[in-house]
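The pair is listed for reference:
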Amino acid sequence: MNLYYFNEENRGHTLKGLLFVAFFAAMATFISMIPAVKAAGMSPLIIGVIVSMIYGNTLRKNLPQKWLMGIIYSTKFVLRTAIIFYGFRITFQEIESVGMAGLMQSLVMVASTFLIGSFVGMRILKMDSELTMLTASGSAVCGAAAVLATESVLK
């Protein structure tokens, strides 16, 4: 954990930014519990992305700049930690149950999706290489969470 975010000068702003992110996460979770939304099969992650996109394109200018420390901390530390813990849900027994063939198939799918996405993005669509890497990694691994985790690595 980077102590810069929590030194005496930044602590309050970081905590406000973290609470802001937690509010969006809680709102997405509650929205996903609405029967009609649940019936549509929308996960809290998808709802969170949609709500955040709406906020980012309409009201973001009202966000205090000092809160960005907590938001950045959320993407750099909290998100990465959550992805690691999510990965722990897959046990060695589950990997063993799909066998080497299933494991290899998964690896081939992730690698080929990333490689095809990179090729199409850079060669056919002429996208920026960093944007291509973000899009390809998100498509290959798990979507928005992978894009956010990869974004900080590319910087």
